[in-house]
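Support request from a user on the community tier.

User writes: "When I paste my structure tokens into the form, the page sometimes reloads and wipes my input. The last time it worked, I copied everything first. Here is what I submitted, just in case something in the input itself triggers the reload:"
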């Protein structure tokens, strides 16, 4: 398995989302989002992208989005490797004496995957519930 940084393209992105039943966004919106990502990881096997993850943020607050592994390749450590690479990126970008916060929205049923890697379900002792608003046109 090869892991490539910052090479994720529109076609690979859409194919991976479709492989897990996620709806794709418009090409224009997706290409802009990929360009504006701080960091992307693509897992490649036999010249085929089988997993991905993206990081967005501002240098203090980060959000992990689009962690996807094709179903046939799940339970092989690919998602863990992608997540670890993203966390390492944030760690290396955090200055000495600084602090960074990483958020994500786990797919239902995948919460324990993230909990086992140090993420906490919110609300907890320091945070209220996470929220989101979707705008459709």
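"...and here is what came back when it finally went through:"
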């Amino acid at each position: 398995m090869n892991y490539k940084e910052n090479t994720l393209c529109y076609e690979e992105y859409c194919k991976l989302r479709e492989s897990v039943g996620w709806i794709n966004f418009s090409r224009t919106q997706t290409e802009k989002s990929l360009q504006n990502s701080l960091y992307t990881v693509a897992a490649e096997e036999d010249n085929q992208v089988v997993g991905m993850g993206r990081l967005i943020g501002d240098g203090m607050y980060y959000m992990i989005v689009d962690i996807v592994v094709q179903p046939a390749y799940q339970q092989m450590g690919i998602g863990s490797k992608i997540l670890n690479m993203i966390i390492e990126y944030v760690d290396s970008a955090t200055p000495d004496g600084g602090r960074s916060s990483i958020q994500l929205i786990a797919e239902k049923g995948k919460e324990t995957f993230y909990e086992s890697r140090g993420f906490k379900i919110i609300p907890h002792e320091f945070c209220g519930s996470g929220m989101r608003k979707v705008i459709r046109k």
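Agent notes: The reload is a front-end session timeout and is unrelated to the input. The first helix runs from residue 10 to 19. The mean pLDDT is 94. Escalated to web team.
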